[in-house]
Amino acid sequence: MKKENILVIAIICIAMGSIMAYHNLKSGKLADPTPGKESVQAENISGIDWQSYSKGTQLAKTNDKQIFLYFHADWCTYCKKLKKTTFRNKAVLTYLKDNFISIIVDTEKDKKLAAQWRVKGLPTLWFLESDSSRISSIPGFVDAKQFLQILKYIHTASYDKMNFSEFVKTI
Length: 171
Prior knowledge:
The structure is a single chain. The chain is of the alpha+beta class. It has two domains: 1-31; 45-170, Glutaredoxin (3-Layer(aba) Sandwich), CATH 3.40.30.10. It has helices at 3-27, 53-63, 77-84, 90-99, 111-116, 144-155, 164-170, and strands spanning 66-72, 100-106, 124-128, 134-139. The chain has a four-stranded mixed beta sheet. A hairpin with a 5-residue loop joins strand 3 (124-128) and strand 4. Helix 4 packs parallel to helix 6 (144-155). The longest helix is centred in the first third of the chain and has 25 residues, at 3-27.
């Protein structure tokens, strides 16, 4: 390969990297949280009222609401798909807001919490009682229709009476 071609490719790469860095800096994605303090992602994903882990668990106790605990990372393809599809569905947004405290955890920024919950892959979705006791978890992407069914199954405590397949037949 000629030196001129390598130089052109290098200039293009530098320019693209600069543009991406500027965009991320402008949107707050490069801002480093203060060490020792929890942070919720700067962007408000699709209108969900995300809480930090400590604040969310406290709100759940105070308001006697179940918890939706979402583990993600910026590099995760299926996390991005959840954000662009499932987390934009109006019925999902309304059901979450009315019945759950939503907590978001970036596994890259809070590795200790991810390890505590034994997160092995992303996305990982956990459902908890208001006292933070575990109900169940779901690994991977879930579309809006099925996620809404899962939210209803969890919120109505139908998991105590029947399996999910039986529940789906009742709604």
